[in-house]
Amino acid sequence: MTKQQFLNKFESEKLNIGEYILILEKISDAPLVMGCAFDKGMWKIYKTKERGGHYIIKETESENEAFDFFYELVLSAHNRLNN
Description:
4-stranded mixed beta sheet
């Protein structure tokens, strides 16, 4: 799915990712971020720790592959918090 399709799905399904915040514009080192951003020619799915500092979970050239994977990551966080 595209970034916009992901955002539409995220809002329509009212996914709750707890303390994490979503950042899709850039890679951030802020604490507790889940993100997917286009950086240096690649889509990068990443998370940050409680004290900041990011780590890359997956890199791909495909926006659709990136946001499909990111959706599953976000859905998994939502399910852990709400079950």
